[in-house]
Design brief:
Elements: H1 4-7, E1 8-10, E2 17-22, H2 27-32, H3 36-44, E3 54-59, E4 62-68, H4 81-86, E5 90-94, H5 102-108, E6 126-130, H6 136-154, H7 162-176, E7 179-183, H8 185-191, H9 193-199, E8 209-215, E9 222-227, E10 229-233, H10 242-245, H11 253-267, E11 273-283, E12 295-296, E13 304-305, H12 313-326, E14 335-340, H13 344-350, E15 356-359, H14 362-374, E16 380-381, E17 399-400, H15 409-418, E18 427-431, E19 435-436, E20 446-447, H16 452-462
Helix pairs in contact: 5-6, 6-11, 7-11, 8-9, 9-12, 11-16, 12-15, 14-16
Length: about 475
């Protein structure tokens, strides 16, 4: 993959191929300004300014590009992404305007996951110029965060187990001067008993652990970011069918989002006291696997009956939420955000592109929705409906981890987690897919960040410097 710092560069008048972005309303005027030879070339390619289409035409001694967009006056993050994938290597400039938000898709459109390819694609970089150099660093930071999620999720479970997630956190800690704490073994069993129970059947190389990172001035508001780190989910003794297990390398997608968001927070020096938590496990099948019907202890002291071992993500997240809710130095968290590839029910309800958003506070939910709309990273709010709490009742324990009746699976999962965070703490939960089953411009098939930029844009506004 090309160096992202080289893909967007300040426009200093260097030689570049022009890209004309044209929408339906502006097509007639655009063609009128072209020479007869240029119009004939465009007509021969049947250019009609449809979205994500383009045509090339002669321009002096060289050539130029006409590309269709929905609205040339208001560009999305993705409207130039296909161009970055299909145009020849070289340097380009938007004619008559700046690329603005489209710089992000220009970078992510050139993403390749080629770790396991014996012959990696030798793509020449496509460089885009901008007259807004102050926007370059922030755009690159977001692109790098997106591509971090993609890299982590795309990596198979054998090479992306709990130990590798720990290494990623350690690398972040080293890069930004953060403190990293890893809890494992007997101490994990005492401090995070549900994390240990879910992960205990895995082999030694993939032993469970709780990963915590703290960064920033303790005087600042505490921000907890939590990510589900189930590095592979067999379903446990309630084993998944092979078709459902095929993509379970992505079940640590929540952890990937959390690590990427923490990187954005620290890289921007956001004035917060960051607390990152990643419960990292593999939900494996072995003689010591936890069982349906077992009653588990939790960090919160709440007893949990296991209704289904394939509802393991909420168990490890519950211990993480409890830890986050304890705060430090007498200060509770100002905000807790978690990301998890938690339920198939959310995908049935909203499909692969819309993360389900749950939030205790209406203002926080709206701020996240607004952040998603501004960043072309939409999400959709579902309710923490109190009437469904009864679905989690247990005859022998305080709560069951699997709702009865088969209804409202995403909501009951969120309600289960809500039980483990102190009342009054502002909390938002993303039930995200972290995967694209089909490619879109700037968003290839495979692991992807869904909800990450919505959260990041909200956090920037909430904790704006000055």
């Amino acid at each position: 993959m090309s160096d992202k710092n080289a893909l967007i560069q300040p426009d200093r008048g260097q030689k570049a191929t022009a890209i004309h972005l044209v929408d339906k309303d502006g097509l007639e005027a655009f063609l009128k300004d072209r020479t007869p030879a240029q119009r004939a070339t465009l007509e021969a390619q049947k250019f009609a300014a449809d979205g994500y289409t383009h045509a090339v035409f002669p321009d002096g001694e060289g050539w130029a590009v006409a590309a269709g967009v929905a609205n040339a006056a208001s560009l999305s993050s993705w409207c130039m992404a296909r161009l970055a994938d299909v145009l020849p290597g070289g340097t380009y400039r938007r004619a008559g305007g700046e690329p603005g938000a489209a710089m992000l898709g220009w970078i992510t459109g050139q993403y390749r996951f080629d770790r396991y390819k014996s012959e990696a694609a030798d793509d020449a970089p496509r460089i885009l110029l901008t007259g807004e150099p102050r926007a370059i660093d922030a755009t690159i930071a977001e692109a790098e965060a997106i591509e971090l999620v993609r890299d982590l999720v795309n990596t198979p479970a054998e090479d992306m187990g709990p130990g590798q997630l720990e290494a990623e956190a350690e690398a972040l800690g080293k890069a930004f001067g953060a403190q990293v704490r890893i809890t494992r073994g007997d101490l994990l069993e005492r401090e995070f008993p549900m994390v240990q129970m879910v992960g205990r059947a895995a082999g030694r190389a993939h032993a469970p652990r709780m990963i915590e990172l703290e960064w920033g001035d303790a005087k600042n508001p505490r921000l907890a970011i939590i990510g589900k780190g189930v590095c592979f989910d067999s379903g446990g003794l309630d084993i998944k069918p092979s078709s459902a297990m095929l993509l379970m390398k992505k079940d640590m997608g929540g952890a990937a989002h959390a690590l990427a968001l923490a990187r954005l927070v620290m890289g921007a020096q956001l004035p917060v006291r960051l607390h990152l938590l990643v419960p990292a496990v593999e939900n494996a099948v072995a003689g010591n696997a936890f069982r349906p019907g077992d009653v588990l202890k939790s960090r919160a002291g709440i007893s949990v009956e296991v209704g289904n071992t394939d509802a393991e993500g909420r168990l490890v997240l519950a211990d993480a939420l409890t830890r986050a809710g304890e705060g430090a130095d007498g200060k509770l968290p100002d905000l807790v955000i978690d990301f998890a590839t938690l339920t198939g029910a959310a995908r049935v309800a909203l499909g692969p592109d819309l993360p389900a958003l749950f939030a205790r506070e209406d203002a926080t939910a709206q701020a996240l929705l607004d952040g998603g709309a501004a960043a072309d990273d939409p999400c959709w709010r579902l309710p923490l409906f109190d009437g469904y709490r009864e679905m989690l009742k247990s005859d022998i324990a305080d709560i069951n981890n699997a709702g009865t009746g088969g209804f409202a699976g995403a909501i009951t999962a969120a309600l289960f987690m809500d039980r483990f965070l102190p009342k009054g703490v502002d909390w938002a939960h993303f039930d995200t897919f972290a995967w694209r089953p089909a490619a879109k411009p700037g968003r290839p098939k495979g692991g992807d960040a869904l909800g990450l930029r919505a959260a990041w844009h909200m956090l920037q506004r909430r904790y704006a410097k000055g």
